[in-house]
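Quick start: read one record
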Amino acid sequence: MSKSVLAIDIGSTKICAVIAEIDGGNIQVIGHGISKSQGVKKGIITNIELASKSIRKALNDARRIAGKNISSATVSISNAYAKSLNSTGVVNVPQKDISTKEINRLMETALYNANIPNEYEVIHVLPYNFRVDDQDSIEDPYGMNASRLEVDANIILTQKTSLSNLKKTVRSAGLEIDGIVLNSYASSIATLQIDEKELGAAVIDMGGQTSNLVIHLGNSIHYNSFLGVGSNHITNDLSMALHTPLQIAEKVKIDHADLVNGTFEMIELPVIGDEENKNSISLEIVHNVVMARVEESLSILSNSIEKSGLADQIGAGIVLTGGMTKLKGIRELAQAIFRNSPIRIGLPREIGGMTEDLKDPAFSTVVGLLMYQSGKHTQYEINNDKEMLHSKIDAQDIELRNIKLNEEKKSTMVEHKRVETQSHSSATRRAARNSEHESTNDSFSFDDLPKPEQSDGNIITKTSNWLKQLF
């Protein structure tokens, strides 16, 4: 049975709302809306009223196209709010067979053992390694026979005040919240292939004002980080260096920025405050300004990967996604900075009904939110509502379901038998009444005899009258 879902990516430069139909694992986009982000800076909400207004604009566009009035959404939250810590959990398995009940108890134990600061709240508990008795690196313990079960989990936290502001902003836009997902986690869902997850990969989502990093090893995310620098900072640098308005600097960045091939070509640009006069600017300046900012950002992110201690486990290399990756030559520059690591530009996974707009790397997060809602999340993760997400059906559940079906079947049979009994009783009563009626009709009465025509000499008439007098 299909269901309608709404995903909203709350970014620093844009708000994107997408409505889709999910049937099983299939996703069909039926409407989307995009608005300029207001009241959000570097991933942090700075003005609830302006931010909710931007959400409403994108939402209304999506609703109009889809023809559906959805009132609840899964939304993204920036890495600017988040930090992570590791925890472990251990439980005994009394029944020896591992079911979702034992795994849920294990995940709750890992969460209980974590030293979570009072000012933070959990948004994801992501298991990345299971141990069954003495066996390590178990991918999925479900259904295995064991007496002891352990897990290593990455717990992603966010500040309570920041989370509260996000919820207020979304509710001010007239929406309820179905789920909250870390934006870089959603981007990794949309861009990583299965083999990349198994080999280990880093996903860097480079947006307008922020750059988010997650390292995905095997089953789940092991590490996440944040850098408050994005493509808007390049625009600001160009505006100051070229003494030209921001909108002109943005156009120069898109049309002329090239991180590989510099040129000495001259272009005419208006001056800030005096757009009638123009200056001649060499594109070499543009190249140098953009190169300096992007190189700095990628170098900081490279250091973050080294500090994580997981650099040697990223066998599949690094995936770059987000709007900033549209800069010419960014892949080649990243290849020079992240040495010995393959680099690719990550486009969002193509799903049904996607327009050309949504196929852009700037929309990886919102596509990942849709995929998250369709079940592409980490198996056995605990979400912000403290629910464990999984796709398993235990034998106990099947047995309970069969018992329920048998009880319903027995109840139906009893009802049919009752109806049949009532029908038989009714038929018997009707037959008795008919028999009584027939018996009454069969009794003889001389009064019922037809009265023949008057005839004094009729022997039959005389006999009849004599019999009436006699009896």
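The domain at 33-234+285-392 is CATH 3.30.420.40 (Nucleotidyltransferase; domain 5).
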